[in-house]
C-alpha cells in the first residue's frame, strides 16, 4: 500500500511539473512571439530544466559525489525560480482576466502588433520580477540565521530554574545545498549563547549517513550545561531513520523517542521534565515508530513543568491533553517562501512564533535554521532560537 501511495504521489508531482513547464513555455515563448534561434534556445532551456528537476533529486538519492550534489542543487534552485515565475505570470493572467471581465477594454479591438507588444511586456515584466524575488530569496537563505530571543513564562517552573535557557535548532536540512561550513556556523552561534540545553527538533538532514556523515559532524561540538536532545522529524524517516539514530548517538546527541528526562534537579527540589516524541508521520514507516505523548510522560505528575520536543506543531493538541507546559516545534519553516505560509496554515495550527494554545499549554514554532528544497527564503528568515524560561 505504501509503495502504491508513493508511486501515485511521484506521478502526481511529475504531471504537475510537466504542466507547469508547459505553461511557462506558452507564456514566455509562444505568446511572446519568439522566433528563430531565440525560440529554439528558450524552448530547449525550459525542456532541459524540466529534466533537471526530475533527475537532480533522484541522482542525489541514488548516487554519491559532487556531480550528484550539483545536479540536486541545480534542481532545487530552478524549483524556486520556477515557482516565482509561475506566481508572477499567473498573477498577470489573473489581472488580465479581471480587467477583461470588467469590460475595461476589449482585446479584440487591439491590433496584432499591440497584443504582441502587451504579451512581451508582461512576459519581460514577470520574468524580471521573478528574477528579483529569486535573487533576494537566494541571498536570504544563504545568510546566517537570526538569533531570536524568546522569553516564556511557565507557571510550574521550579524557582531554582528561573532563567533556564534553551537553544532550539530545527529543520537544518543538511543536504546538497547546506553543507558542513553552514553547520559549523550554526554550532558556533549556539555555543556563543552558552545555553543550559540544546533542543534539536527534527529534520536535521536530507540524505543517507554515508552521504552526510562528515557534513553533519560539527553537531558533535555543540556545548551546553545539560547536553543536546533530539526528536525525529519526517525527513529523518525519508533519509533512513535507524542509521541516523545510531550516528547521532555516536556524536553525543540523545534522541528522545516517546520518553523523557529530568534536568536540573537538586537534592531538595525537582527539575524540569524534557520529553520528546516521534514525528507525527512516523507510524507510516513501521518499526515501532510513532508519536505517543502518554508514553513519553508516563509517571510524570501533572503539576510538573514539562517541555515537549515535537517536530510538527499539530502535536500540540495531544500535548495539551497531557498538561504539557511548552511544546517546541519546527516543520513549517515559517512558510519559507512567501506566500507558502498561507498554505501551511491549512495543515498546521501554528506557523511560527510563540502561541498560547490553551490556559496551560504554550507552543513555540521555529521558522527553521536551514531550509528545504529551493535554497531560498522570502518573508520567513531562518533562526537559531534562544529561549529563556521564567517563573510566573
Task: Describe the SSE topology.
Layout: H1 2-30, H2 36-62, H3 66-101, H4 112-141, E1 146-154, E2 164-169, H5 180-193, E3 197-200, H6 209-216, E4 228-230, H7 234-238, H8 241-250, E5 253-255, E6 259-263, E7 272-276, H9 293-296, E8 306-309, H10 316-321, E9 326-329, H11 340-344, E10 353-356, E11 362-365, E12 383-391
Parallel strand pairs: 1-12, 2-3, 3-4, 4-5, 7-8, 8-9, 9-11
Antiparallel strand pairs: 2-12, 6-7, 10-11
Helix pairs in contact: 1-2, 1-3, 2-3, 3-4
Care to describe what's here?
The chain has 392 residues and is an alpha/beta fold. The protein folds into 2 domains: 2-141, no CATH class; 146-391, Metallo-dependent phosphatases (Purple Acid Phosphatase, chain A, domain 2, 4-Layer Sandwich). Helix content is 44%, strand content 15%. The protein is built from 11 helices and 12 strands. It has helices at 2-30, 36-62, 66-101, 112-141, 180-193, 209-216, 234-238, 241-250, 293-296, 316-321, 340-344; strands spanning 146-154, 164-169, 197-200, 228-230, 253-255, 259-263, 272-276, 306-309, 326-329, 353-356, 362-365, 383-391. The strands form 2 sheets. It has a 6-stranded mixed beta sheet. Strands 6-7-8-9-11-10 form a 6-stranded mixed beta sheet. Strand 3, helix 6 and strand 4 form a beta-alpha-beta unit. Helix 1 (2-30) packs across helix 3 (66-101) and helix 2 (36-62) packs across helix 3 (66-101). The longest helix has 36 residues, at 66-101. The N and C termini lie far apart (50 Å). The mean pLDDT is 89.
